[in-house]
Write a structure and sequence with these properties.
The complex is a heterodimer. By secondary structure, chain A is of the alpha+beta class. Helix content of chain A is about 55%, strand content about 10%. Chain A has two domains: about 220 residues, no CATH class; about 200 residues, no CATH class. Chain A contains 15 helices and eleven strands. Chain B has a six-stranded mixed β-sheet with strand order 6-7-8-3-9-10, with helices on both faces. The longest helix of chain B is centred in the C-terminal third of the chain and has 18 residues. Classes of the chains: A alpha+beta, B alpha/beta.
Chain lengths: ~425, ~230
Amino acid sequence: MIAFWDSLSALSQDLLMTVLLLLPSLLAGGLVLRGFAPWPLVRAILRRFRVASILFVLLIAISVGMGIGLLAQERGLRHGTAQAADKFDLVISAPGSEMTVMMSAVFLQPSDMPLLDGATYAEIAGHESVSIAAPLAFGDSFGSAPVIGTTAEFARYLAEDRIEGRMWETAQEALAGALVPLEIGGGFAPAHGHGDAAEDNAHAGEPLTIVGKLASTGTPWDRAILVPVETVWSVHGLANGHAPDRSDQIGPPFDPAYFPGTPAVVVRSEALWANYALRSEFTRDRETMAFFPGAVLAQLYRVLGDIRQIMSLMALVTQVLVAAAVLLGLFILSRLFHRQLALLRALGAPARFVFAVVWSFGAVLLLAGTVLGLGTGSLAASVLSRIVTARTDILVTAPLGWSEIHFLAGFISVTLLLSLLPAAVVLRQPVVPSLRG
Amino acid sequence: MGLALSISDLRVTSDRGRQLLAVPKLELPAGALVGIEGPSGAGKSTLLYALAGLLTATGQVRWGDADVLRLDAEQRARFRAERIGMIFQDFLLFEELDAADNAALTALFRPRTERAALRARARARLASLGLGEQGLDRTVASFSGGERQRVAIARAMAAEAPVLLADEPTASLDRAAADRLIDDLIGLARATGTTLIAVSHDTRLISRMDRILTIEDGALTDDREGSA
């Protein structure tokens, strides 16, 4: 069985899982409705109690929409953060918290970090397996845009060479991320620091010009301004990484003697195995720390995964409770048409037919609410994605996926099976007292 | 053709054990038109519901060959669907359905092969009761009391059941509508040979019956020929 399951394509597995989850409700529906045509009566009851029916449908739709919207959002956030870390194969920094370094280097969240010296950088950059070794320099900003010092090679790699305009050629030139409100040819002076604490005039004498605009990457780097790393070092009064006789040089190689230090080096190697070798080689006590941001995120997802499971369970329980409340409402509502149900029995309707009418009424409300909830959830996920993207600059897209479809299929089955209960209870009501009103 | 009724030792008691009705012996021929009169709470409707197999009772209630009290709940339901039509004081229609759907209500749970014929008969009954093509597709919410009760008669007779049980069929109607309904009900029952048993306080209805039973305090106290 497991071998058969594994032999199926992912789409086949998802489709089959959906069918399996729906199977209990399909079987129940088939058994309850077999040979009967209760729909005219169900339509009549829906029309009679249209306001209550609409309220029930909306209640279910909101509950379902919130549940699947949140689940889709959580998946979209994971996908977005993983995407944001995609270009950062290996990060080497001074020993400390991998999470802090990752948040700083990948997600551009400012924090104080110790620096790697020039000799260490030279060792990394000079390693035979390394194709890109980009030092990063943080600390300045322009408005809400962090100003990041790095190398031209890394900037090209980050934007996959999609640069409108041109690459910087001097220390006074910069590239703007796709979301930075600066156009090519525009000038700016970086402020020292970030946010409210930024000193706007600290580097007022060092104006820079935007010469290129990076294509959108869907990462926080879209809101960053990239400058030569030499520029950041210079405006802070430090050596610019090169000997005085080569002070106009932009980009590597850097002279270890004039290397002011970098909090993190983004390393890329052409071979996957080499990344592992580099991580091992540059993981040294009290000297350097090398890690894969993807692995750190995976650890984070593992922790969040448990929370996700709890969230999923809570969402399901909440929805089942809402559905149960709705079904209780149905039972109360059915008291209002108990005379009609008694009439059916008096006219010779089998108990299963009366059962089918009540169950179908509940099923229509639950299915309508679920379908509407699918739309509501999709809309909620879309709105939440935009809000999260705007606040984090991480491109989050949360289209509804198979897990939401499975969730809904499970919800439908559980609630349609639950709705057998009020139908059964209604059936136990005595006929003659109801006929007499 | 109607069914003959034979009752012996029929007893209906309440959940608390109080005797509600006792009928030691009663024989009615097939196609008889029978009126049941008596004061309110005497047990008239209880007898009617017992005859339909809607109450738990002891003794025998034989319609033709079938003793309904010996049947289980689902057998009784099938018996009612095939053999008994019922009419109630306040019509008990589905207000959101049109006249044709109300009259053909039982088609919804009858075997698929019988549904079309039952719907056709329901429309024919409505037409014969004066609810022609113009009224068939209107929801009954817009109908007068007399029209509603005629829809209920059409529903009761659509299955061509040999027995018709009516519980105060004219009680919710004004005099003119009640008189028309009495004509319709008795005319149809006689024309089809249906056994009709009607509980009523309406002397005009009772007086048109072949036989009149009086029930008082849960007992049959009088059984006489009608003036019809």
